[in-house]
Amino acid sequence: MSDACAWPATPPDGAFLRVEHGADAAELTASGQCGAAVMCVRVEGAEMNAHWHRVRTASSRGGSGAGQRAIVARWPGGTCRVADDAAVAAVGAAIDAAHVRDVESWRRAREGRLTADGGWLTVAGLFWLKPGANRFGSDASNDIVLPAHSAPAFAGSFALDGRRVSVAVAAGAAVTLAGKPVGKTSLKSDAGGADPDVLSLGALTMQIIERGERVGVRLKDMRSPARSAFKGLRFFSVKRQLRISARFVPHGKPKTLDVPIVIPGVTETMTAPGVVTFDIDGKALRLEPVIEPGSKQLFFIFRDKTAGKTTYGGGRFLYADMPQDGFVVLDFNKAYSPPCAFTAHATCPLPPEQNRLPVAIEAGEMFAGH
Q1: Distance CA 231, CA 115 (A)
Q2: What is the per-residue burial (b if ≥16 Cβ within 10 Å, else e) of 293-313?
Q3: I need a surface site. Which of 138, 202, 282, 329 has the fewest CB within 10 A?
């Protein structure tokens, strides 16, 4: 280390601050954050990479992560570590605000997906198929009764042969697949995480799903009463201390986990790469994530002491990026209710026993009987 320096009052183009705070790392433009108040010691890039990113400077802010804040400032031609506590607090406040903005953006996207065409608020039915013919249409005599606003009295028939499904559309019924009229064709299901074929009929869509030994038709209705009556989601206030850096402990060898779903006696087999360990309010906790087919994220299905009170009784979901340097960032501010909180026609996974936490996590999405 050499050459004491002051952060320039007008940083050059390309200057930024990198702030590390517990699990967080963010880069902000320096202008307007600290100005000349930031005092730093110049270090070489190699030394910073090897050492300074691990340094933690005491913070005046409380909560989880206090005492774990450091700032590194860099601009073309120089890199330095901030050694001024007031500057640390000022930039820390900016990072806290950035986290709030990130969570608020996530919330908007979450509600957008929920209310979109084809979102979970449009799911209006689930019909398990019997071997042979399964008639569908708006008439009550059909095996699958569709809303009359989009379907004729008889629109066609699904045929189940083993686990194979085909559809035969009645003459005059305007059923399409990928935008083209359908007469008779086989249908691909969602088995193994695949994208199923989607039949369209007016404001309705139908697709084949497989759960355990069952094969069924999932119906979505863009005019669903649940979608029309939806009044929005509710959330706990954003809590920075519940964005946690959890240690990832990989399983010694590949492991699969049989995850129960809401259908009694049915499980889904998923890959379980390891466990994460962390503390909340001084309690040592652990969760075991799974990886869904085709996904590049960890999927946490968990329940805590808020379940059935301020959050959905069946637990909540949380996604996290894959481990980096042995750690996983768990932002419980992005925990959300499963589809079963919004429709009786979903087949949600349930929290396995090891993912039932003995603490109340008052962060993320709330539930008030949507």
Answers
A1: 10
A2: eeeeebbbbbbbebbeeebbe
A3: 282
**Integer Cα distance of 305 and 168 in angstroms:** 49
Q: What is the CA radius of gyration of the chain?
A: 26
Domain boundaries, the chain: 2-115, 120-228, 240-355
CB-CB contact of 8 with 36 (8 Å): yes
Q: What are the tokens at 125?
A: 């039915």
In tens digits, the chain (370 residues) has pLDDT values of 233 334 444 444 444 444 444 444 444 433 333 333 333 333 333 333 333 333 223 222 333 333 334 444 443 344 444 444 555 555 556 667 778 889 999 999 999 999 999 999 999 999 999 999 999 999 999 999 999 999 999 999 999 999 999 999 999 999 999 999 999 999 999 998 899 999 999 999 999 999 999 999 999 999 999 999 999 999 999 998 899 889 999 999 889 999 999 999 999 999 999 999 999 999 999 999 999 988 999 999 999 999 999 999 999 999 999 998 889 999 999 999 999 999 999 999 999 999 999 999 999 999 977 5
At residue 252, what are phi and psi to the nearest 5 degrees?
-60, -30
Which residue is associated with the tokens 């700032």?
71
| Separation between Cα atoms, residue 216 and residue 219, nearest integer Å | 10
Locate 33 and state its tokens.
């954050």
List, in sequence order, every beta strand (DSSP E) within 153-197: 156-161, 164-169, 176-177, 180-181, 184-187
Cα–Cα distance between 142 and 217 in angstroms, integer?
14
Fold (topology level) of 120-228: Tumour Suppressor Smad4 (2.60.200)
Q: Cβ-count burial of 77 within 10 angstroms (0-12 exposed, 13-18 middle, 19+ buried)?
A: exposed
CA dihedral 219, 223, 224, 229 (to 10 degrees): 160
| Contact of 30 with 7, CB cutoff 8 Å | yes
Sequence-distant (≥ 6) Cβ neighbours of residue 327 within 8 angstroms: 23, 245, 246, 247, 248
Q: Could you give the 3-state DSSP secondary structure of residue 327?
A: strand
* Cβ neighbours of residue 370 closer than 8 Å, sequence gap 6 or more: 226, 230, 341, 342
HSE-CB for 139 with a 13 A CA cutoff: 9
